[in-house]
């Protein structure tokens, strides 16, 4: 990756500065808003701090509200997204490799169908999946969120493309001459070579599950099982609709900030993997 | 002579694919089949369930609420997708040509919104748009105008478009930027020596070279637009102007979860999926054709 | 359920059996082995944990497992999916009055009359009992309601010598005077809330719906274009058009800030509002007062209700008899429960004795500068008459509010709102197999 670093004109930098402002302002707002209590939130200027610095107070209350359920949500979100991401990555890697380097009955059809699968709207699947899973008896359990999230046609597609580009058949043939089993070849030859796309698929499914709202909303009815997205929305609705006494806007804001921070950090640190994956996806 | 690319090892190959295949069957094929089955019958509140064949589909394609919602999403996409991809492309080309620390910072920051869950992003913007919490509503007053009402009928689509643009521009920029990194330098080395400007190279060489990536980004954006749901769903709590059938997907949701008509809801989802599918494939075909001619 | 058994076998085979073992411990409902019967409850009342604890402490044979699965529409969505799936619903569910027929037609509710719930008739406000029952059949046990009255900024009305309106005509006049004093202020907000609008129509003598599942499952009355209904929409539409009334949705941060900053001068509110406003408005505490609702005719004494909820027993209850006990006694006559309900959750009690108790009627509210506001709300609840809902009230409110939204944004004339809603609702009802009267 060698690029001339000679262009230092003003216009591109101005454009980029404007872009940064646009992308940052909402995030800055939520950081500032999380330091305010309910009264300051309603009365102080939006982009500046309130009379009191209530961040720590908000955090303490956040983890105490409803018997500390926010901690559960945080943990649930990590378990759901971690579990789905690991599972989906393993499945996608096996399948992507199988599709890229083997021929078997029905393969062509399956590959063509793969593209169609990417386009199936997830929301259309949630309801029938719920009706089916409820008869198996696993709705309102963590499996109802994790199992459907294992499905990642895009991940399989990415791995297939990547293997086709980066693992020559000769390498596999050489291993086979050494009497290595297919599974061992996969583990010792293929996996080390597809590590970047491995991470990419992992990240994609991790984010997809971390951000998922509709699936857990429909599948779960027990507040202890909610992920952050569903839980915080429940609080927001309580604050917004309930003709009750709890006005929770400050906690919703603080909780949202805390839900975003880990992902933002992970993104910034792992960005090169996104790019390699995105490039693989864009090649075809 | 074509290089051999495949291994004739049918059993092993099939076994590698099997686990994924099972998940596909369990969580895609079976639910889809079940939804399709549901869509072929109707359940009216008073009369109960009866088989109606494609009756739900005739109803869907003549339902003015659904058609209005569909039209709204089309108009939305026709403006928002080109705008977003245009900004993303300019950003990606800038990143490809400028490699200062500032540019790296820009790249990182532009990507951040993608890390924000769509529900929380919509909630956040709901606050940002409000008169009480947000910094934007009073901006026009600085120029002597009336405070902006981002939830009004006039501005609502713009407000929603901004949320989507904010969340997805950076992501698309990274996709296009990665594609640009794959463009071999030799393709424009000569032009550089001839004194062509960066802008000329960008327009004449780089953009055509990553046409495929742009098309792919466009397809995914169009699919996303057709399935528009979370943002209007969340925003409806702030904006009464978001009606039950504001977008097709919101309509399908309300049919199922508010009106208990799971059969019609399934039919709407299918009809929508079908249209998206046809549109996406037509788009793929048209870009292929243009390339080969 | 159509085809569900077929897919069930398929998925059962496909789903790894070991995963299922992990959930086997999820089974509930004891009782058979001699322990107490466990009854699951879905409800979103604030401070409800204390109420559940009080019930469990006072019952040995029945224990309640409470879950808050979400507010209003969120919980209903879950109930509807659970009834479609045939499994997953709780034994007892909190349901608002206007939703009772909706769940009746889904065949979701148990008649508690067969377990003796009819004995509670005299306990509850008449209008509430009428909505919760159908003849001898008891489908719901009332808990809280929302008799309506007018909240207003007493300090501002006094300061500018604007008389507190006793009729809606005077209300419009007050709105004009208020606008002359403060051009940025509004008399109130037209809040895009189905229950609120319904309460106003109720007060105007409008009875747009009629339904009785015991008489005829498939007959429904829709009469939204009655003059008594039209006058409400036209009156409020006129205020909105003349910019005397704002259009913020209720309970948003914007609406709360507007109430708390002098932007809104009144709010036609309900018996539960004192709790909500005292909890969320700080700047204007002590400046508000409550007056009876303005009347359509001078000297009349007509009233409406906004909001209120009940406990129902679902058809999926393992032990409907025990569930009925829970529905009747979670609040019912429980002093502990009502202590929490009144003083922490700020519910308006539909149990007549609780509402009439001096501890409630005589309570002075700091937020209302010491006014005993319940002296106004309680008689309202006593005077409320019958009111019916449709078995598809979500659709009706949804369509009505969508048409109102069109009118507020200038895409529709206010006097066509109810015509359009009437037409859409009748079309919908016919498609759903009803005969419409």
UniProtKB/TrEMBL annotation, chain A:
Keywords for the protein's UniProt record, in alphabetical order: Cell membrane, Membrane, Transmembrane, Transmembrane helix, Transport
Domain of life: Bacteria
Record-linked Gene3D superfamilies: MetI-like
Membrane topology: Multi-pass membrane protein
Leader peptide range in chain numbering: none
Residue ranges of the TM segments: 12-34, 78-100, 112-133, 145-164, 185-207, 248-270
Record-annotated ABC transmembrane type-1 domain positions: 74-270
Subcellular location(s) of the protein: Cell membrane
SUPFAM superfamilies in UniProt: MetI-like
Entries under PANTHER family matching the protein: ABC TRANSPORTER PERMEASE PROTEIN MG189-RELATED, ABC TRANSPORTER PERMEASE PROTEIN MG189-RELATED-RELATED
Family label: Belongs to the binding-protein-dependent transport system permease family.
Stated name of the protein: Carbohydrate ABC transporter permease
């Amino acid at each position: 990756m060698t690029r001339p670093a000679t262009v230092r004109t003003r216009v591109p930098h101005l454009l980029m500065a404007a872009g940064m402002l646009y992308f940052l302002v909402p995030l800055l707002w939520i950081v500032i808003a999380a330091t305010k209590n309910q009264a300051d939130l309603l009365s102080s200027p939006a982009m500046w701090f309130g009379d009191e610095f209530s961040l720590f107070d908000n955090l303490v209350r956040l983890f105490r509200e409803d018997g500390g359920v926010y901690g559960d949500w945080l943990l649930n979100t990590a378990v759901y997204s971690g579990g789905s991401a690991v599972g989906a990555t393993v499945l996608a890697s096996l399948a992507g490799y199988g599709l890229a380097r083997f021929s078997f009955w029905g393969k062509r059809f399956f590959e063509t169908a793969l593209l169609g699968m990417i386009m199936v709207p997830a929301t259309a699947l949630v309801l029938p999946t719920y009706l089916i899973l409820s008869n198996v008896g696993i709705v309102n359990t963590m499996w109802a969120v994790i199992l459907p999230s294992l499905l990642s046609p895009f991940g399989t597609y990415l791995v297939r493309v990547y293997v086709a580009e980066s693992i020559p058949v000769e390498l596999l043939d050489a291993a086979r001459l050494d009497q290595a089993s297919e599974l061992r070849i996969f583990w010792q030859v293929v996996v080390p070579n597809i590590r970047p796309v491995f991470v990419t698929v992992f990240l994609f499914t991790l984010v997809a599950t971390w951000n998922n709202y509709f699936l857990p909303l429909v599948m779960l009815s027990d507040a202890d099982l909610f992920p952050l997205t569903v839980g915080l929305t429940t609080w927001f609705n309580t604050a917004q609709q309930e003709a009750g006494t709890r006005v929770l806007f400050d906690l919703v804001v603080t909780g949202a900030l805390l839900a975003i921070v880990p992902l933002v950090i992970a993104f910034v640190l792992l960005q090169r993997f996104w790019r390699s994956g995105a490039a693989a996806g864009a090649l075809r | 002579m074509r290089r051999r690319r495949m291994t004739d090892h049918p059993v092993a190959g099939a076994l590698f694919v099997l686990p994924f295949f099972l998940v596909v069957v369990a969580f895609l094929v079976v639910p889809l089949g079940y939804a399709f089955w549901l869509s072929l019958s109707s359940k009216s509140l008073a009369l109960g369930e009866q088989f109606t064949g494609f009756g739900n589909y005739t109803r869907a394609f003549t339902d003015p609420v659904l058609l209005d919602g569909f039209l709204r999403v089309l108009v939305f996409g026709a403006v928002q997708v080109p705008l977003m991809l245009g900004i993303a492309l300019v950003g990606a080309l800038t990143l490809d040509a400028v490699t200062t620390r500032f540019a790296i910072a820009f790249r990182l920051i532009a990507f951040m919104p993608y890390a924000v869950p769509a529900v929380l992003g919509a909630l956040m913007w709901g606050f940002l748009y409000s008169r009480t919490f947000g910094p934007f509503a009073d901006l026009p007053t600085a120029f002597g105008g009336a405070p902006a009402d981002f939830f009004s009928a006039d501005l609502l689509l713009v407000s929603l478009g901004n949320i989507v643009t904010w969340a997805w521009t950076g992501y698309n920029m990274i996709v296009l930027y990665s594609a640009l990194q794959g463009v071999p330098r030799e393709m424009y080395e000569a032009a550089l020596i001839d004194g062509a400007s960066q802008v000329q190279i960008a327009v004449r060489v780089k953009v055509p070279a990553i046409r495929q990536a742009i098309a792919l980004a466009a397809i995914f954006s169009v699919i996303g637009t057709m399935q528009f749901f979370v943002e209007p769903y969340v925003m409806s709590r702030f904006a009464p102007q978001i009606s039950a059938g504001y977008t097709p997907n919101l309509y399908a949701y309300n049919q199922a979860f508010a009106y208990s008509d799971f059969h019609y809801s399934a039919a709407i989802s299918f009809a929508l999926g079908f249209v998206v599918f046809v549109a996406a494939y037509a788009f793929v075909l048209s870009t292929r054709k243009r390339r080969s001619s | 359920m159509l085809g569900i058994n077929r897919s069930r076998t398929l998925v059962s085979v496909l789903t790894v059996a070991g995963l299922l073992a992990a959930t086997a411990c999820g089974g509930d409902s004891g009782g058979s082995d001699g322990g107490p019967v466990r009854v699951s409850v879905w409800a979103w009342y604030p401070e409800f944990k204390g109420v559940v604890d009080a019930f469990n402490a006072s019952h040995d044979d029945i224990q309640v497992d409470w879950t808050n699965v979400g507010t209003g529409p969120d919980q209903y969505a879950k109930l509807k999916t659970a009834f479609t799936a045939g499994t997953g619903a709780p034994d007892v569910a909190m349901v608002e009055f206007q939703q009772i027929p909706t769940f009746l037609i889904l065949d979701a509710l148990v008649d508690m009359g067969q377990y003796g719930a009819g004995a509670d008739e005299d306990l509850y406000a008449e209008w509430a009992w009428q909505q919760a029952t159908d003849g001898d059949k008891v489908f719901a046990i009332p808990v809280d309601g929302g008799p309506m009255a007018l909240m207003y900024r007493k300090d501002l009305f006094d300061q500018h010598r604007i008389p507190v309106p006793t009729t809606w005509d005077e209300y419009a006049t007050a709105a004009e005077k208020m606008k002359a004093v403060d051009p940025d202020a509004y008399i109130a907000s037209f809040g895009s809330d189905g229950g609120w609008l319904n309460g106003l129509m109720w007060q105007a003598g409008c009875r747009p719906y009629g339904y009785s599942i015991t008489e005829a499952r498939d007959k429904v009355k829709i009469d939204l274009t009655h003059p008594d209904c039209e006058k409400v929409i036209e009156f409020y539409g006129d205020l909105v058009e003349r910019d005397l009334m704002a259009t913020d949705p209720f309970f948003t941060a914007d609406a709360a800030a507007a109430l708390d900053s002098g932007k809104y001068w009144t709010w036609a509110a309900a018996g539960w509002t004192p709790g909500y406003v005292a909890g969320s408005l700080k700047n204007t505490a002590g400046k508000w007062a409550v007056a009876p609702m303005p009347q359509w005719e001078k000297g009349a004494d007509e009233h409406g209700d906004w909001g209120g909820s009940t406990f129902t027993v679902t058809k999926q209850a393992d032990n409907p008899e025990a569930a009925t006990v829970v529905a009747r006694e979670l609040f019912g006559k429980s002093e502990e429960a009502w202590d929490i309900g009144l003083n922490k959750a700020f519910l308006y009690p539909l149990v007549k004795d609780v509402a009439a108790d001096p501890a409630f009627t005589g309570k002075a509210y700091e937020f209302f500068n010491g006014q005993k506001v319940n002296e106004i709300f309680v008689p309202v609840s006593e005077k409320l008459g019958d009111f019916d809902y449709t078995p598809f009230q979500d659709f009706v409110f949804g369509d009505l509010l969508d048409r109102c939204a069109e009118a507020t944004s200038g895409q529709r004339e206010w006097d066509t709102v109810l015509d359009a809603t009437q037409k859409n609702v009748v079309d919908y009802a016919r498609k759903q197999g009803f005969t419409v009267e």
